[in-house]
Amino acid sequence: MEYFSLHKGPLNIPEIYTKWYEFSIKQNCGALITFCGIVRDDDKVEGLSFDIYEPLLISWFKNWQERLQKEPVYLLFAHSIGDVKVGESSYFAGVLSKQRKLGLKLISDFVEDFKANAPIWKYDLKHGERIYALDRSSKLLGAGILS
């Protein structure tokens, strides 16, 4: 899980990308495909804040790695914990593969699955308050006792 990382506050994208790029050239892969999530000003938010249930997130990431063991790919992942202001990055995902076609498909699948199933709770930062973003949340499979 060398390329799975959680960071307090906003991500330093140039630093993380450089690390991933240096790793990729050592693997003799032809495609490093990334997705960078940047906090935007929707509905006058000052930023977003994130809580993460780390053991479940690690399990989610490991499941992805296991699914891809037969493919010549590496998954790369970084996410923020806590507050991230508008214009800063909170999410960075990457796929390193021998060829671009597989990498392009996987980055899309990986990001969509993350949005639907990762145990990360998002809050809007408005007027100095942290407000749970219920309208942009989805229920996690197996969470809670109610259906």
UniProtKB/TrEMBL annotation:
EC annotation from Swiss-Prot or TrEMBL: 2.8.1.12
Pathway(s) served: Cofactor biosynthesis; molybdopterin biosynthesis
Gene3D superfamilies registered for this protein in UniProt: Molybdopterin biosynthesis MoaE subunit
Catalysed transformations (reactions): 2 [molybdopterin-synthase sulfur-carrier protein]-C-terminal-Gly-aminoethanethioate + cyclic pyranopterin phosphate + H2O = molybdopterin + 2 [molybdopterin-synthase sulfur-carrier protein]-C-terminal Gly-Gly + 2 H(+)
Enzyme class: transferase
Family statement drawn from the similarity comment of this UniProt entry: Belongs to the MoaE family.
Subunit and interaction comment: Heterotetramer of 2 MoaD subunits and 2 MoaE subunits. Also stable as homodimer. The enzyme changes between these two forms during catalysis.
Annotated protein name in UniProt: Molybdopterin synthase catalytic subunit
Organism: Campylobacter taeniopygiae
